[in-house]
Amino acid sequence: MTVRKILFLGPPEAGKTSLRKFLFEGVAAEDLLAQSEAPTIGLKYSTYNYVQTMPTDKEKKKGGEKVPVDLSVVDAAGQNLADWLDEKKERVFPGCDVIFLIFDVSDWLDDEKRSEIEDLIMNVYNARVELAPESSFFIIGHKADLLPEGQTYREQMVKRIKKELNDYVFDKMMKYLDFAVYITSIKEEFAQDAFLTLLNLTVDLIGSAAPAEEEEKSDIQLDALEKRIKKGFE
Length: 234
Hints:
Elements lengths: L3 E6 L6 H9 L4 H6 L8 E10 L13 E11 L4 H4 L4 H4 L5 E7 L6 H21 L4 E7 L8 H23 L6 E4 L7 H18 L6 H18 L2
Parallel strand pairs: 1-3, 1-4, 4-5, 5-6
Antiparallel strand pairs: 2-3
C-alpha cells in the first residue's frame, strides 16, 4: 500500500502546525490555544497510523473512532516559504496527494497583505502543476475567529476571496481557475466545523491510505465517517 502524502504550506504563524495536530494527533483545541507553538524548522515529517472521526473532547479526553491509515504529513516552515517555492521545491511537492495552503484569513482584509497572499497562491498553484499535477489543492483561510462575527459574514468572505482570486488570475493569465476556498478556526464554536471540513477534504485520500490488512474494517469506518461528517454540517 502506497503511503499517501499531505502537505501543509503557508506563511509563518498561519496556524499550520496547530491544524495538523488538531486533525491528525488528537490534540484538543483548548490545549493548542493555551500554548504557543514553537516555529517549525525546515520540513517536519510526521507519519500517522490512524485518524479520529471527531475532534478530541478535552473534558472527556477522547475523540471519535480511530480509522487506520498510512499517511505522511509534511509541515513546511513558513520562515522558509520562499525556498519551498523556488530552489527547494523538488523536496516539497513531488508525491503530494493533498496540498493545504493555509493563511491568516484576517490578512485578506489588508490590501498589501492580500496582494502577497494572491501571489503566494499563484506560486503554489504553479509548483503544484509542475511537480504534483494529480494532487488536490485546498486554500484554507484560518483564524476565522479574527473576522467580524456572523456566519453570513464568513460565507461572504469565502465568496469574496474566490472572486478576487479569479480576478487576479484572469489579469495574470487570461484564464479562469475555480479555487477551492474554506475558512476555519479551532476557537470554541468553530472547532468542530473546522475538524469536519478538513476531514471531509481528505476522506477519499484516507480511504485509499488504509493498510491492506485493515481495508475491510476501514471501509466500514469510512462509511460511518462520511455519514457523521454529513450530519455534522446539518
